[in-house]
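Task: sequence in, structure out. Protein: SatD family (SatD).
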Amino acid sequence: MICIITGDIIGSRKIKDSWLASLKGALKVVSGKHSRWEIFRGDSFQVEVNAAEALKTAIYLKACIRLNKPADVRMGLGIGVVQNKRKKLTEDSGDAFVYSGAAFDSLKQIKLNLAIKTSSADFDEEINTLIKLALIAMDSWGVVAAEMVKLALEHENILQSELAAISGRTQSSVSEALKRAHFAEIMDMDKLYRKKLNQMF
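Result:
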């Protein structure tokens, strides 16, 4: 199972192009050596990631874009199979693409910036409820909170003192920023998502 993330940058025309470098850098990180990502129509993008990494990837992409305040990102996550792999990601087909497009198209209607769709309505309902709650925190991340979330995801399993050294901030300010971002709770959501995904698929 793989995840296709379809997204676009909110308010991209009203802000400087600094978000573009952030987006390209983030897509290179999350797609790894496979490098299956594309930016199209100026401010829209698609990226292919492992299904288990889908939610963490979306959180990371959001943190990278929120560094460029007031920019934000809308993303539809589709979990499924890819049938025809072609050279260009946007020319591939399969359930993952259909679900990703459907999740993305639903965002304006449900007035949210992140949603997931799979072949299981029960799974979708449960995970989307968690996402809705997590977005209360994520949609209000300031630049410092977004920066600390980005660094914490790039350097997993290191101490806050080490994060402080990397970021050039004090340990207390790192701790405060991650608390403000509700990082621990958001990672708990990611753990539960992975557990449910394993049970379901």
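DSSP finds eight helices and five strands in the chain.
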